[in-house]
């Protein structure tokens, strides 16, 4: 697919779309599933289906609905309680979508994903092939994070990120994020009544990230920042993003007709290959290695493979084949890739020429520490939590 388009209706032209609906919208601010809203989206998606478009729905709301069903007035903090609420609420969510889509003769499928499913190459390819098969069968997949099995450390947490990952996974041309605001404002309109509406922007523009704040409600997670970052991620596969109000009448049909509603964040970044996206989409890294300035230049400017001689420090505990961050002398991530040696072996061969690897380790599996085909480079900082430090790290784009 083309890297970008300046056509006024990139969303209208999209044949494969991901629609993401947020918790507060689906559950009417936590009061319980808004069956009427669900029916409206199902009707619109059915109409788009009839036009030959393929749609994956990423729906939040399991925890909020579970809390409503269990009579819990406040969102619990304990992970096991959140997981229990999600397990209860997911039933209601899926039931509501099944009933609503059945009115239009459309079958639905439940897909629960974790970060691990998308980080492991084999599982990633399996998920992709299942989604493609469902779409080919005319089924609407309803995706959510598999909240009941993920721990705090590895959960995505917000479904904006999940929506973008699914957009990358199936190479959708558009990601439509429906929320409780009309789109992105220059500041959180709940806090700043003078905030200006942003109708169009470029995905990945750091100025937009500065405007976007966290969630203003107790129901949603992530707020506008995760939506703006999701647009940047969706752009990696050429996906344009719209952030719009899910309460806007016929919002999906009108967007698909080319009407400008909400905030459109266009994909103008060069499109990455599926393999590069898979590498870039690793949100949790097993370790990091520090490159000297010559190595930074060799890998980022000259696109060479990384050799052990250019590495000056190793952090973390990783195995051959893990995804590891490459940082410069200042600790700034300049890329990441699949490493050919474990952390223990990397520590022993760092600063050494490849010709010495066999002497040091007893054998040499690869001359390169990271092969250029297995690396991606940073185009701008995006947060992703490091398994190593628990802190946010930049993410290769
Ligand atoms: N710059 C901004 N523009 C619009 N909304 C913003 C902005 N910054 C923060 N927000 C907040 O983001 C909220 C939407 O995110 P969130 O609560 O996570 O919803 P969802 O459940 O739909 O993902 C809005 O209700 C608003 O309070
Ligand atoms: N997987 C969670 C969604 C997390 C969440 O709150 O997402 P969102 O409302 O999109 O910010 C759930 O279904 O409750």
TrEMBL record:
It catalyses: L-glutamate + ATP = L-glutamyl 5-phosphate + ADP. SUPFAM superfamilies: Carbamate kinase-like (SSF53633), PUA domain-like (SSF88697). GO terms for cellular component: cytosol. Pathway: Amino-acid biosynthesis; L-proline biosynthesis; L-glutamate 5-semialdehyde from L-glutamate: step 1/2. ATP binds at residues 20, 179-180, 221-227. Its EC number is 2.7.2.11. It is an enzyme of class 2 (transferase). GO terms for molecular function: ATP binding; glutamate 5-kinase activity; RNA binding. It is found in: Cytoplasm. CDD domains: AAK_G5K_ProB (cd04242), PUA_G5K (cd21157). Pfam families: AA_kinase (PF00696), PUA (PF01472). Keywords: Amino-acid biosynthesis, ATP-binding, Cytoplasm, Kinase, Nucleotide-binding, Proline biosynthesis, Transferase. One of its GO terms (biological process) is L-proline biosynthetic process. Belongs to the glutamate 5-kinase family. Catalyzes the transfer of a phosphate group to glutamate to form L-glutamate 5-phosphate. This is Glutamate 5-kinase.
